[in-house]
Design brief:
The complex is a heterodimer of chains A (435) and B (92).
Chain A (H helix, E strand, L loop, with lengths): L4 E7 L3 H12 L4 E4 L14 E3 H7 L12 E10 L4 E7 L9 E3 L2 H14 L3 E3 L4 E7 L2 E7 L5 E9 L6 H6 L10 E10 L2 H8 L5 E9 L7 E7 L3 E9 H7 L3 H10 L1 H7 L3 E11 L10 E2 L2 E3 L15 H21 L4 H13 L1 H8 L3 H7 L2 H20 L6 H16 L2 H14 L3
Helix pairs in contact in A: 1-3, 1-9, 2-9, 9-10, 13-14, 14-15
Chain B lengths: L4 H6 L2 E3 L6 E3 L2 H6 L5 H4 L5 E3 L4 E3 L9 H5 L5 E3 L7 E3 L4
Antiparallel strand pairs in B: 1-6, 2-5, 3-4
The chains are: A alpha/beta (435), B alpha+beta (92).
Amino acid sequence: MANEKFDAIVVGAGPAGSAAAYTMAKAGLSVVLLERGEFPGAKNLFGGVLYRKQLEDVLPDQWHKAPVERHIVEQRIWLMGKDSAVTFSHRNEAYKEPYNCWTALRVKFDQWFASQAEAAGALPIYETVATELITEGDRVVGVRTDREDGDLYADVVVIADGVNSLLGKQLGIHKEWQPDEVSLAVKEIIALPKEKIQDRFNLEGDEGVTIEFMGETSLGMAGMGFLYTNKDTLSLGIGVMVNHLKKKKIKPYELLDHVKKHPMIRRLVEGGETKEYSGHLIPEGGWNSVPPLSGNGWCITGDAAQLVNFVHREGSNLAMTSGRMAGEAVIEAKKRGDFSRETLRLYDQKVAESFIRKDLVKYKGMHQILKEEDPELLFTRLPQAVNRAAYEMFLVDGVPKGEKQKKAIQYLKQAAGGTWNLLKVGMKGWRAMNG
Amino acid sequence: MSSSIAEKLFTIRYKVDDQSHLIIKDQQVCLTCETKECTHFCPADVYDWTGEITTVAFENCIECGTCRIGCPYYNIHWVYPKGGYGITYKYG
């Protein structure tokens, strides 16, 4: 494959890469789709929620053929105490028509998504690592691979190589991620008979439920767990910030086993058989960690560019949208015959005008608050106080409600270290969630 | 239904290269490292401290990259396994 030149090389056949490859191939560009795994998706992992809208934007005609597990009709949020939970949830038939989101498994989905790009004309080169970018001056002109004679040349390289993005690092557009900019998530796929899933989660047909939980389950580290229903498996996982994990010296898989023992979780996964264990980093730096998205002969997309909205567990949708937009910018560059920063900046503009920038900017303070605030306060003491307050309010033991209310408020103040601190945390939280 | 890490890793399909993609740059650094964090935060127990050196069970690596960022001295040379090698998830 030496000295062949293409319009574009896409590195990484995840949602961002396949969306970019599809978009460009469909417009008639010559595109290579590189993937280091045995097949697309072989190395990939997510919690498990896939959103329709952004998939439909890439594949208006085929999105409904995507291999998915269950369509989500109910989303639950659990604030965990040690043996308790204060819960919040929303279920709505309206999520069915049109679908809002599904649970999915990346091995199936990514293969299918990449096959759409292949069908549109992208040239798949799998089982191949892009070891470095080939540059001429400040221009990216191709990639070096770990194959013999494995140099590939193109007018543009779309970098979609995921959270570790060794190619992005090589470009020097962002410093190495710091341990407080990423979370490590570990997950298990737990097989359970379909009927059990239907019964335990109150589901009919291919309806599904998602549960996000935070609190004592993360053992004093900033993090969030999840339990999602698939067809005949459950996805159970927990992610915690790497800087907290380093400090706490807790083994990630022991954390996951700890989660399994919580009474709210235990009864839902009981009797299941673990089919797969997995782990992955999640970019959680937010807007302030997003690098420039394009330059001379390159665009960077998805996780590689920190495009994750961790507050709403959205990532694959931002990846697909950013991949599509990068693809559109390259198509325009091809039309103009100019692949310099000036034209490819169109991609940055598209992202800036989309929900991606708006959502990430809205939550840009979240990373700082998680970094600065005591994780024990946010993830142990406050959730515990809320659980104790709820316990008091619902317990009928002859104590008048007025006194219970006072006690409940007292718990919260104590947890935060006084009224003033409680207000301060509240204000900080509000500001962090509102840009 | 908790299982040991060995049992958990047994659920993943590996195609192991005979060359490690994870290399300790300088064992002297490990010797002076007080916290030995890599022996805790790795989700696949790749790293172990023998009392003299850090051993690297790269065969177990799930390619997450935590050690690349997590080692306080950036003492781990981290690259991807060769194309097609390493883990292959069945579900993902």
